[in-house]
Amino acid sequence: MKSALKSGLLALAATALPAVAYAHPATGEAAGFSHGFAHPMSGVDHILAMVMVGVFAFQLGGRATWLVPATFVLVMALGGALGVAGTDLPFVETGIALSVVVLGAVIALDVKAPLAAALGVIDLFAVFHGHAHGAEMPEDASGAAYVAGFMVATALLHAAGLALGYIIGRAGERQGAFVTRAAGSVAAIAGVGILADLI
Questions:
Q1: Letter string b/e over residues 46-81, b meaning 16 or more CB atoms within 10 A of that residue's CB
Q2: pLDDT digits (tens, 9 = 90+) for 170-189
Q3: Dihedral, CA atoms, 57, 48, 27, 138, nearest 10 degrees?
Q4: Coil, strand, or helix at residue 100?
Q5: What is the rounded distance in angstroms from the CA atom of residue 49 to the CA atom of residue 44?
Q6: Which end of the chain is more exposed for a tag (fewer CB within 10 A), N or C?
Q7: How far apart are the two ends of the chain, measured CA to CA in Å?
């Protein structure tokens, strides 16, 4: 248990390192990357959803462990391109809030969805998150660097979720399942609160 906790803390610390590295003023592509990296970290809705994607992937196991996060990041980049291009997408903020509710509920209920269904749900939410990132790109930022920044930040949040799932799982099958489901419940309730603020 101690070694698992140590591994998890190291993973979370590694997640924070790029944020520290880009805390200083930057110019050009570095500015684009730092703005992009900061965007997913700037809202509790994005953070909760991204960590829950990692926990969900861990819960599904097998190929889903890497395929769910990787697919999310790639589809999110497409959504980001739509946002950068100024393409209108209705209900973006609602979709983001719903992603927190649904992912939290799926984890709380320990839903063992088929991989295709899981990817379909993940892809839908990835478009909303990506569009929000892309639409809020600063005018002076490099588009490619900005997109790379929010892709890296998102992947690190997914990794934190996977690490969290692993740490909880190491607590034992019975206790780990309870803690995982409790974490999903907390996220779902937080998502309902975020959704209520939008209505």
A1: bbbbbbbbbbbbbbbeeebbebbbebbbebbbebbe
A2: 766 667 778 888 889 999 99
A3: 110
A4: helix
A5: 8
A6: C
A7: 43
